[in-house]
Amino acid sequence: MARKTSVQFKDSELQIIRSFYEQEKFQLLSRLQHVEQVLSRMDGGTKAITDGITKPAMAVPAVPAQPVRRKPGRPRKTEVVVESKTKKAGRPKKRGPKSVWGNFILRRLRQCDRPLSYTELVEHAMVMNNLPESKMKNTKASVLNAAFRLRTHLNKIDTVGLPGKKERFLVLKSWMDAAGGLKAPYNKMLSSLAATPVDDRGRKPRRPSVSDSAPKKVVAKPVAKKAAAKPAAKKAAAKPAAKKVAAKPAAKKAAAKPAVKKPVLEMAEAMA
């Protein structure tokens, strides 16, 4: 005899099963009502035939999704990770490389010591960097961008012009006074430059030659050989020290001789 087993359902499973069979019951009743209406109409009735019971179908409740186990280090899907905008302590980030064209513009203004137009700066850049004509468009854009940055962000240069003239000239901020005008003698230079064609404005830079751009080979000079060190001269053999002459004994003083009486004294004694 088979052993009976008790089947247990969860609350969510019971709800799904009940909802399913209630929906099936409603559909069967609706079809049965439709059959009865058709048969009644065929027997001479006047009742209108409907598609079935107008009761809305019951919606199947959604099954709650099982929670997904979170792996270590992975944020929850419902959580919103808000990044803190507080500045971290430590070494500040380094700036990128400085603009090559910005330094070029400042250097050319100091070297020429006069206002320069955009056209002149582009020509100087092409000649001094030995660039081909195909690079003209890119060079012009680079010079314009660098000049804009120097003028608006760094406040190192400014543009000036004359009324009625479209051409603009770049000048250093140190050349301008507090009122925004050019100091002397740059104000006179500006008026004369505006009336002079571009090709006649001062000395033109020279395009570097191939020999200047090519790296020069450094010829290593032959190192002179050092003369072999001569052996140190032997010291002369030390001569034996000369023996000191034995000191002679001091000469004996001559024995004192009796004093010889003078003859005068002898005569005096004799007379006495």
List the helices and strands and how they pair.
Elements: H1 11-42, H2 100-112, E1 116-117, H3 118-128, H4 136-152, E2 157-160, E3 169-172, H5 186-194, H6 210-213, H7 263-271
Antiparallel strand pairs: 1-3, 2-3
Helix pairs in contact: 3-4
Please state the CA-atom Rg, rounded to the nearest Å: 62 Å
Number of helices: 7
The unreliable regions are: none
Determine and state the CATH class of the domain at 100-198.
Answer: Mainly Alpha
The number of distinct β-strands equals 3
The secondary structure category is mainly alpha
What does this structure look like?
With 272 residues, the chain is mainly alpha-helical. Helix content is 35%, strand content 4%. The protein has seven helices and three strands, in the order ααβααββααα. Strands 1-3-2 form a three-stranded antiparallel beta sheet. The N and C termini lie far apart (206 Å).
Structure at a glance:
By secondary structure, the protein is mainly α. The protein contains seven helices and three strands.
What characteristics describe this protein?
35% helix, single chain, Arc Repressor Mutant, subunit A, mainly alpha, 3 strands, 272 residues, 3-stranded antiparallel beta sheet
